[in-house]
Input
Amino acid sequence: MTSTPDHSHVLAELQKHPAALLAAYEAAVDDVTAVVGPGSALRWAEEGVRLASLGTRAWEAATEYYKASPAVVQLIGFPQFERWVESGTELVDESPVVAASYFRVSPEVLPTLAPRHIANWASLGHSLSKGTWKSSSLAARFFDVSNDLVQNVTFHELQLFVTLVQTLSNRSYDLASEALVLGQRVLPAVTEREELISLATVLAETSWREVRGSFEAASRVNLSVDRKLRRRYFALTERLARMGMGNVSAFMLESAHSLARLPQEEQMVVIERAEDLADLSHEAVGAFLKTAPDVLARISPAQMDEWYARGVEFLKENADGGVAYFKLESQKAELLLESLSSSIELERVRGLLGMYANALAGSEVELQAVGELTHKNIGWVSMELATTDGRNVFLPAMVDQHESKEENFSWLKVVTTHQVGHIEFESFDFDFEAEAARFEDLRGKVADGIGAERGSTEVATFFDMFPARALAADVFSVVEDARVDANLLERYKGLTAHYRKVQSDTLASRAPIHTMPAQQAMVELLIRMSLHQTEDATVPTQYLEQAKEIAALLRQVQGPEATVEDTAEATLRIYHMISQIANEEIPPDDWEQADLSETEFTEPDVESIVENFQQQMDEQEGEEGEGGEEYES
Output
């Protein structure tokens, strides 16, 4: 490159330094001249010479100055450029290494940084350099991470962050340098940056080794605590840190994990109570925040206020006892929760209900949590709540259907009775060959007519006859529930009011029948009739006659002497009717209210059942069938 005469003395000076300095100048001079003109370009070139002469390694800073100049002057113009150089010159006097970092990162940082903050940004880096190699390395590191910081934090937050790093550097330069990296990674992901920095600054003064953990825990807080509450959360944590709470990062992780289990409105209640509790004990705050979700799982926020107030009283009387109370390690805390809670936990009443179930069944029955069973039950007691397999009764771990403990216990007792009733009234003793008490036996004749083979069990033999096994199983389940319920209410008349109340509540919560396709609607109608909705039943007009016969068949198994074999016979007849209905949507106008309380059924002949079953099996083999949707259990 050919230099202008005006720059000959510059070239002469630059040649006294390593070749990298002259190369940087030559690469930049034309671009700078094109922007600022020859006169200003000369001042620019001479400034690089002056920088290089300020110390042994100052040429390194001058090299970065020349490299950065074309981009910087293009960004901020020459007047502001000269002020940028002045700040760099002050840094060279302090440490050429720091100045080199300042110049090197400027093309990346300045597009984000407001011009009025450039000098202050340089001063922040300058403030970290104390004339030692460790402090110079820290200041250089600050400039290296500045681009990520200025893109994600306000300048005021940047100033606070550097103050934190300065405080840490008084304790440990390694930790201060690590804090820069943590800030670069964590601050962009945290919305309450000023509050986090304020907390960390307190920790830097009181428990400086906690700073790293507090930054790492902040990401969890950001994910777990509702945004509207995070400022208050960090303020509370800082307050506890000032009070001398140790292991702040563990507190943050545990409390954030607990708060994540609560909806926003309950988070607000809990944080408000924690703020009040902080006046008395930071240990109690940690304990309360950790156990609050478990408390609120058992009682309402309003009830928690009473429980909390009692704990505050205990805390004032005895600090250790109060902390144990909020940790739920106190008998007083558990007793008060139990008295306030409307829910019933199976674990707490397992012994009492177990004796009751054994007495009903006349044999040893185990009560288990419902989560251990996963298949579906079509009956009025849904699988999510309870069932039995003949030896174990599966019940919900917690019942909170109602607002009072008495109502919830009554519900649990009714459901237990219903399930144990299947054992007491021999639902699991079905014999395919045994005679029914209230029906003519058609099972064997239909099986012979369709050529059905014996199954591996009595029950399998029965259900293997049906082409649509799911439909048959659903009908059988509902009819058998109805038989067992009728026997229970006849034998244990004192349960009638509670039993009917639970059934009535269940009926009210069922999905609208008119939204279902025809076959599913008829099964739903069967369920509703088993729950005693017969006088004002919603029925598809087209299938009113079938509904009347189904109601009469159901009443047969609800009569005295009916056995599980009667349930099987009723199932056979009900299935025969429903399976011939196309599972199509029913128009809204094709429904009516009907009284099904006094109806009769006509016995079908075996040949018609066999013909229907055989036709269904043929259609399944040919993948043809009635129009409409496939029946869903």
Q: What stands out?
A: The chain has 28 helices and seven strands.
